[in-house]
From TrEMBL:
Keywords: Signal
Name of protein: Substrate-binding domain-containing protein
Cleavable signal peptide: 1-23
Transmembrane stretches, start-end: none
Domain of life: Bacteria
Xref: Gene3D superfamilies: 3.40.50.2300
Length: 373
């Protein structure tokens, strides 16, 4: 009952207010968007369990996904219990076990890694509960449905942006700070980036210094790895492909410390990322309209909760390859958008981040210039 009240309060207060409670990669204020510890007691509507992976790897999970999923599920007459495993696999397992025991009608998982997701999906299937892989596909898993973005396209946008940013600097040196090797998305982002970057590396237009995957998307480790590579390269870098805004922020801290300013990519269109773009420290970010991801997931969940697989299949009309399981997973794959200084406004207009969160006194002039008021 208590968590239902909190969830309703969050929905009533509007997503923007919930988002305003979140800084760069910080957890939101207590009470923002529902309960955060333990699994809520069952209440009224059809119960759907949702487990998000982390808080610290990106501000998106608590800032965008959680409130948007709660709202989208509610619109479908579903009662979503949205929990976050905080990057801890044991917590993820405990939350999943508890939701399965409670008899949720559908389980939605954005897993910390594929192995964990695969194990959880198998347990749920055993209990007759359909599973949706949310945002991250669990390789070798059994989930029948997947909702995400075209993640190869996300990487392509990042790679293209770097090629554009460095087009007048022949032989420019690029360092790549990539996501977790255990997250299939990180692999897809990398593959997409290389579509744009490899021809430039091959022709000598750009020079790759090093590509470094970062375990668990750990932002701090990303900054440390970048610093080490930069030092080993004699302090020389002309551009950094960072896989998301969190890693980009850590890279920018190191660049600033060394008095360097070079194009840096990002992803997630977080408030901190948008501020870095306006400040001219981050060249671009990728906006993924998570509201669409939440809505597609809620519609799928509503169909699956009724056992209506024909309706579910009519929603998930695309497919994503699971190379490990050697199967095509029925999917909804949404379209990402490049954000540079010129269109930061789009993210604010779409209601993801409030102008007041981005346009701090320091950035008032940049905001005016970018048409944000
Ligand atoms: C998500 C990104 C996010 C990253 C780290 C990926 O799976 O698609 O949006 O930045 O995980 O949390």
């Amino acid at each position: 009952m208590r968590s239902k009240t909190l969830a309703l309060a969050a929905v009533g207060a509007g997503v923007a207010l919930v988002l305003s409670a979140c800084g760069a990669n910080e957890a939101p204020a207590p009470g923002a968007g529902g309960s955060s510890s333990g699994v809520a007691a069952p209440s009224g509507g059809t119960k759907v369990g949702v487990i998000l992976p982390e808080t610290a790897t990106s501000a998106r999970w608590e800032g965008f996904d959680k409130p948007m999923i709660i709202e989208a599920m509610k619109a479908q007459g579903l009662d979503a219990d949205v929990q976050n495993a905080q990057g801890d696999t044991a917590t993820f397992t405990r939350l999943a076990d508890s939701m399965i025991t409670q008899g949720v009608k559908v389980l939605v998982i954005a897993s910390i890694n594929s192995e964990l997701g695969k194990t959880v999906a198998a347990k749920a299937a055993n209990a007759g509960i359909p599973v949706i892989d949310y945002d991250r596909l669990n390789l070798g898993g059994s989930s029948k449905y997947y909702v995400s973005f075209d993640n190869s396209k996300v990487g392509e946008l990042q790679g293209q942006a770097m090629v554009t940013a460095l087009k007048d600097k022949a032989g420019a040196q690029v360092i790549e700070i990539e996501g977790a090797p255990t997250d299939n998305n990180a692999t897809l982002f990398y593959q997409g980036q290389q579509k744009a970057l490899k021809p430039a590396y091959d022709s000598g237009a750009l020079k790759l210094v090093r590509s470094q995957p970062i375990d668990n998307w750990d932002n701090q480790k990303g900054g440390q790895a970048f610093e080490q590579i930069l030092t080993q390269n004699g302090g020389k870098v002309d551009g950094v492909v960072a896989a998301n805004d969190g890693l980009a922020g850590a890279v920018i801290t190191v660049l600033n410390k060394n008095g360097l300013k070079v194009p840096v990519t990002g992803q997630d269109a977080t408030a901190a990322g948008l501020q870095a773009v306006l400040r001219g420290e981050q060249y671009m970010t990728v906006f993924k309209p998570i509201k669409q991801e939440a809505e597609a997931t809620a519609k799928l969940a509503a169909a699956l909760a009724k056992g209506d697989t024909a309706a579910a299949d009519a929603i998930a009309t695309q497919t994503e390859k699971d190379p490990k399981g050697n199967r095509d997973v029925k999917s909804v794959l949404l379209t990402p958008q490049t954000i540079t200084k010129a269109n930061v406004k789009d993210v604010i207009t779409a209601g993801y981040v409030k102008a007041s969160e981005v346009c701090t006194p320091e950035l008032k002039a940049a905001c005016t210039e970018a048409g944000i008021s």
